[in-house]
Amino acid sequence: MNSRQRRGVILLLLSVLCALGAFAGVLAVISDVNSKVGPETTAYRLKRDVVPYRNLNAGDFEKISMPKRWLPSTAVTDLRQIEGKTAVTPLKSGSLLQTDMIVDQPELQPGQQEIAIMIDAATGVAGKITPGATVNIYATFAGEKKGDPDQSRMIVAGARVLDIGKLTPAAESNDRAGRATTTVPVTFALSTLDTQRVAYAESFAEHVRLALVAPTTAGSPADKGDRTYTLDKDK
Fold first, then answer.
1. Considering Cα of 49, then 54, then 56, then 57, what sign does the dihedral take?
2. With contact defined as beta carbons under 8 Å apart, do 186 and 121 qualify?
3. How far apart are CA 155 and CA 204, in angstroms?
4. Does the pLDDT value for residue 16 go beyond 80?
5. For the segment 205-215, what is each residue's pLDDT rounded down to a tens digit?
6. Which of 52, 130, 205, 232 lies in the 20 to 30 Å Cα band around 163?
7. pLDDT of 80 strictly over 60
């Protein structure tokens, strides 16, 4: 073997040794990372924004993997945990789903019924009323006969809102100025008598409006006389 061949063999051996050293270094780095990160586990992230008290479903979330040691103890790791749950606060897209973000769906109390009616979105909801809110329900009626004053009545005090539907263009304008209106279905939990009052108002009242009230007041008026208003009361 001449000198040139010996140099070639030596260079080849050096290349092999460098490659082995680099490979060992990569393995050491991977081992170090694994020792710091640890095993991964399943978690779930919001795919879209979710409004408060909206029923949750699997389509709202995407499955992700992350190191178990970095996962909060409240993180949801099984979507069966969202069954029968609703969002307690606004959930933002990209957020990690955690158990303290969700609560049990509101249930009807004994003797209550669900009823949904269409409400003028601009004057009756205006984006301020959300599921779980407490509202008073007002209806305005024309005078029963010619010469009788129009009346505004609080037909239900302290109604609990269960759900707010999607905005829908009204088939017919119910605005006195003839402007096009947009309505939204609102679902309430009411007693049988209050359910009948709301159904009557939706059928015969000129307008039905909602007024958001503080939960502590329950929306109750000071006395029964406060439920009905006519313009001549201010004279």
1. negative
2. no
3. 13
4. no
5. 888 989 888 76
6. 205
7. yes
